Amino acid sequence: MLLSGVMPYTFRPAVESDIQAITDIYNASVVVGGATADLTPRTLDQRRAWVESHKPPYGVFVAESEGGQVIGFGSLSVFYDRAGYDGVTDLAYYIAPAWQGRGAGTFMLDNLLREARARHMRKACGIIFADNAGSIALMRRFGFTQFGLMPAAATDSTGTMRDMSYWYLDL
């Protein structure tokens, strides 16, 4: 269902050698604000532990440019740690600043949804700052439904209090 045609990117599971790039991309989002409720950058060891915590059917994946540079990463994570929620994944993705607006987010979301279906997930959920126009547009573009809005729910690294929007897609 790739919506924007053929992209010059590749998608694959993250490996140990990707953790520095994953950390750098994530920390760029932390510093700028507006995409994560982490208030301070994460260390390499913290990101490594996060990647390693994703046991099948969950996982962390990267998108690479034609030249092999990691330009983004995404994850299929546990939505809620009760067995009755098995098959529901919390989906998230981050794109390196230089690659934003170049189709990498669309590519990443499309491939994360393919992975979720291949791993027999039944629902994908996204929790997004309500003013993150780019991610909200992607949720809508891929057919996600907004199922909630929590006003003034989280602060980002800039000290801005933000509303959280909650999205789901039946897979």
Condensed summary:
GO terms for molecular function: acyltransferase activity, transferring groups other than amino-acyl groups. This protein has 4 helices and 7 strands, in the order βααβββαβαββ.
Can you lay out the helices and strands and say which pair or pack?
Layout: E1 10-13, H1 19-32, H2 44-52, E2 59-64, E3 70-78, E4 88-95, H3 104-118, E5 123-129, H4 133-141, E6 145-155, E7 161-170
Helix pairs in contact: 1-2
Domain N-acetyltransferase: 9-171
Protein name: Acetyltransferase, GNAT family
Keywords: Acyltransferase, Transferase
The proportion of residues in beta strands is: 25-35%
Helix-strand makeup class: alpha+beta
Specify the CATH architecture: 3-Layer(aba) Sandwich
User: Residue-averaged pLDDT, rounded?
Assistant: 94
**Total domain units:** 1
Helix percent band: 25-40%
Please provide the count of β strands.
Answer: 7
Series of secondary-structure elements, N-terminal to C-terminal: EHHEEEHEHEE
For the terminal residues, how far apart are their CA atoms? Answer: 13 Å
What kind of sheet is the major sheet?
Answer: 7 strands, mixed
User: What's the CATH superfamily, by name?
Assistant: Gcn5-related N-acetyltransferase (GNAT)
> Helix segment count?
4
* Arrangement of strands in the largest sheet: 1-2-3-4-5-7-6
Spans of at least 5 consecutive residues whose pLDDT stays below 50 are none
- The rounded Rg comes to 15 Å
CATH topology category name: Aminopeptidase
Q: What would you call the quaternary organization?
A: single chain
CATH class term:
Alpha Beta
Shape: globular
GO molecular function, one term: acyltransferase activity, transferring groups other than amino-acyl groups
Protein name: Acetyltransferase, GNAT family
Organism: Bifidobacterium breve DSM 20213 = JCM 1192
Keywords: Acyltransferase, Transferase
